[in-house]
UniProtKB/TrEMBL annotation:
The keyword Transmembrane applies. The chain crosses the membrane at residues 6-24. InterPro entries: DUF3139. Keywords: Membrane, Transmembrane, Transmembrane helix. It holds the Pfam family DUF3139. This is DUF3139 domain-containing protein.
Amino acid sequence: MKHKALIIAMSVSISTVILILVLYDYMGRRAADALNFQGEEAERLSIRQQFLQELSSKEHMPQESVQQISGYYDAKVNDYYVKVTYKDEPDVVYVYDKNTKGQFVLMHILAEGGTQPDDRLKHKHRFSPAP
């Protein structure tokens, strides 16, 4: 009888350890997925390239006019967007999003030191939504 109780206790203990290890692995993966709020690197690079191509083809502006461009992922809307700084306006960051038609649209203008008057912004018309 003692031998049988020992076997049952060992089986329960081993099953508990295995269950804990499986849950630990599962929870670790879920936490890592939840923390990956930056999106896929390939997608962030792709949206940057798409923006540069559209800037050249639709806005007739050379890619060299861009000082800095970064692709980002917005976990709230589950989509990517770009932040662009032009060489002739180094203190202003333009934020462009892709609409449902796959076209870039100006969403925000971030000016260092506060908001500048619209008439001073050189690129506010680029990819602006139609009024």
